[in-house]
Structures are given as structure tokens and as C-alpha cells.
Amino acid sequence: MNIYDYPTLYDVLFSDSWKREIEFLKTALQHYCNVTEQGRIFEPACGTGRLLWRLAQLGHNIVGLDLNPHTVAFCNKRLKRHGLPESAILGDMTHFSLNDLQQKKSFDLVFNFVSSFLHLTSETAAISHLHAAADVLKPNGIYLLGLHLLPRGNAVCSQEHWAVRHGSLSLQSQLRRLSFNRQQRIETVEFRIKATTPKQHYEIIDTFPLRTYSLQQFQSLLKKVNRFNVLETFDFHFQSPVQLNSQTEDVVFVLSATNKN
Ligand SMILES: C[S@@+](CC[C@H](N)C(=O)[O-])C[C@H]1O[C@@H](n2cnc3c(N)ncnc32)[C@H](O)[C@@H]1O
Q1: Best mutation site among 119, 148, 160, 164 for ligand 1 pocket (most ligand atoms within 8 Å of CB)
Q2: pLDDT, tens digit, for every residue of 72-108?
Q3: Ligand 1 center to residue 58 CA distance, Å?
Q4: Considering the domain 159-211, what is its CATH architecture?
Q5: CB distance 49 to ligand 1 below 6 Å
């Protein structure tokens, strides 16, 4: 089972935080890019586009990219329903260009929250993604990259639970680590969603690999890629600055694109 094949459930599960995420995106666009209207915004690994359609409603030009045809279809259907251009594209965030994204002009801002970057399980894929993101940004354009870092001495059985209710649908989810290969920097996680409606009860269980980064490993990656400067850091509630040390876990890095070497 692939959890992303159930975009309706995914969308409800991540529906609680959109207000603060949209506020942060609006503030970042204004503060770092000096743009208040018609910003050019791109989200790699956009999923259901739960933030993109809201940004489009605010008058911004948005593009999304995702590997999963179900989430791309869901995203475009919602954009269409709101009378907005269907600008989600099926593709891999490891390789993309303005041409692939059907764009002529580069972006003011790229964002990727909720650790989607960790789906890139090799160093090569991560490097390729960061180069592609820098290539589609204007000079000094901003990449807001949120990821969960692995704190030093992390215990092997970490897990998270949360529950959401939407009308008569109630969801309970659990994300837990099944195994961790420290040498290969791959953790295998299990994601379970239990869905209950008045008429049925079902469960979706998916297992997938994520790449792990300590703060130092992420900083070395940025140095190797040499296309971004870190301007600021925020936590997942968009409070700044984050104390960056070996125990830091949730960080949104504000990365400013530098010119190509
Ligand atoms: C945790 S979801 C995040 C979705 C969205 N960014 C959000 O904030 O709700 C991760 C998404 O990454 C997508 N994904 C995973 N690997 C990908 C890849 N190599 N290229 C593009 N999308 C990918 C999945 O299909 C999924 O929709």
C-alpha cells in the first residue's frame, strides 16, 4: 500500500496546520523576495497541493510537482474546482527544469515542508534536487526547506501519533520507525492510518525508507552543493531562530539561491 495513493485521507490528516503555513509563506515572500502579489511559487513533492490552491486563490502563480499520479490528479481537480489553472505536474523532484514545469520565468520562492526531502534516499538524488531547485529560482530566490533532523544519540524506536476529525470522518495515524541503518543513513518507517466513518472502518499501512540527516550532515550537503546560503532557521511552528546544535530536530531552513558557479 502507498499512503499517497489515498490523497483524500492525506489531505485531511495534514489539514490542521495550513493557516500558519500560509501565513509563513506570505511573510517569507514579502520579507525575503519583496513580493506581495502574483509571486511565482513552486512546491516540489506537492502532494495534494493543500497549500498551493490557497496560494493560487491569493493571486500567486503556483506550480506543483509530485511523483504520485493520484496526488497530482487530486491537486489539479481541486485547482479546477476553484477556477484556477491546473498546474500540478507529474514528475520526480530529483530532476526538473523550468521547461519540465512548463514555465518560462524562474520562481521567487520554492518550498518543501513536512520532510518530503527525506524521500530522496541517496546523496546523489539529494544533490541533484538541490541543484534543480537552485536552477529554477531567480538569483537570491528563496527555498524554504523543512526537515526533521536526527538528534545525536537518537533512540531506535521513535514514533508519532495524531488524530484528526473532519465531518463524519475520523482519522488516527501513527508514524513509527521500524529499523535504522546508521551506516547507510536509511530509516524504514511505517505509516498507519485508521479511518472511521459511520458506515465503515479501514486501515492503510505503508512502509517506506527515509534518508536521515544530522545537522552536520545536512550542513555538509549544502556546502557540497554550494548553491544556497542559509539566511535563517525556524521551527515547525515558524518560530525563529532555532538553536542549531546536535539535539536540534525540526527545522525550516531559509535558503537563498546563489548564482551558478
Ligand atoms: C509528506 S508528503 C508532502 C506533501 C506536501 N508537500 C504537503 O506539505 O502536504 C510527500 C510527498 O512527496 C512525494 N514524493 C516522494 N518522492 C518524490 C520524488 N522523488 N519526486 C516527487 N515527489 C515525491 C510523495 O508522492 C508525496 O506526495
Answers
A1: 119
A2: 999 999 999 999 999 999 999 999 999 999 999 999 9
A3: 23
A4: Single Sheet (2.20)
A5: no
Edge to edge, what strands does the sheet with 169-181 contain?
159-166, 169-181, 186-196, 201-211
Give strand ranges (E) for 2-60.
40-44
Q: Which atom of ligand 1 is nearest to 11's Cα?
A: 9
User: Where do the domains of the chain lie?
Assistant: 3-150+213-257, 159-211
CATH ID of 3-150+213-257, from 3.40.50.2000, 3.90.1510.10, 3.40.50.360, 3.40.50.150: 3.40.50.150
CA–centroid distance, 199 to ligand 1, in Å, is: 30
Atom of ligand 1 nearest to the CA of 120: 19
Tens-digit pLDDT profile for residues 136-191? 999 999 999 999 999 887 654 578 899 999 999 999 999 999 999 999 999 999 99
For 180, half-sphere exposure in the C-beta direction (CA atoms, 13 angstrom radius) is 13
